[in-house]
Amino acid sequence: MRRYGLGVIFLGLALALSGAYGMWSGWDYIQLERGWSLFIGGATAVSGGVVTIALGRAIGVLGRIADKAPATQASAADLINEAQAPPQPVAATAPPKPPVEVDRYIASGSVYVMFSDGSVEVQTDGAARRYPSLAALRADTGVGGG
Questions:
Q1: What's the confidence (pLDDT) of residue 96?
Q2: Region 50-69 average pLDDT
Q3: Confidence at residue 76, expressed as pLDDT on a 0 to 100 scale
Q4: What b-and-e string marks burial along 38-61, b requiring 16 or more CB atoms within 10 Å of the CB?
Q5: In angstroms, how far is CA 38 from the centroid of its own chain?
Q6: pTM given for the model
Q7: Can you spell out the DSSP letters for the chain?
Q8: Cα–Cα distance measured from residue 75 to residue 70, given in angstroms and rounded to the nearest whole number
Q9: Chain mean position to CA 19
Q10: Which residues share a beta bridge with 117?
């Protein structure tokens, strides 16, 4: 079993402990600037140590997750074997589904049917004409939209 992030955790622990020692030793001289500097520097080291410990823990968890994940990179031998293998039959793709009617409205005695693929069908006097888009309908009829 691999121990991911253990070194980072120990370094964070050392940083936090040295920061705590700096705070403890600076407490006696806190009225002097040296004491304040030790105390503030120690507090910064403690907080940095805690963050480093958390990062080490995150590295450990991510390492264990990576161990459980399947390998996604192929080796050179796998790529060569795949290139030399006979081609596999390609599965036939399913035919595209017909477009679904989205909207229907009547204007000036004509029925306009809008479909999900963007096409428009115009039904007038029992005859129907299909346009690939609303822009094609406008171009054919000469009516500008907008």
A1: 81
A2: 89
A3: 66
A4: bbeebeebbeebeebbeebbebbe
A5: 44
A6: 0.45
A7: ---TTHHHHHHHHHHHHHHHHHHHHHHTTTTSHHHHHHHHHHHHHHHHHHHHHHHHHHHHHHHHHHHHSPP-PPPHHHHHHHHHSPPPPPPPPPPPPPPPEEEEEEETTEEEEEETTS-EEEEETTEEEEESSHHHHHHHHTPPP-
A8: 14
A9: 38
A10: none
Q: How far apart are CA 24 and CA 40, in angstroms?
A: 11
Q: In which residue are the tokens 């622990």 written? A: 13
User: What is the rounded distance in angstroms from the CA atom of residue 130 to the CA atom of residue 113?
Assistant: 9
Torsions phi, psi for 72 (to 5 deg): -110, -15
Higher pLDDT, 7 or 69: 7
Query: Which two structure tokens, joined as six digits, stand for 44?
Result: 């910064």
| pLDDT band, residue 51 (cuts 50/70/90) | very high
HSE value, Cβ hemisphere, 13 Å, CA-based, for 126: 0
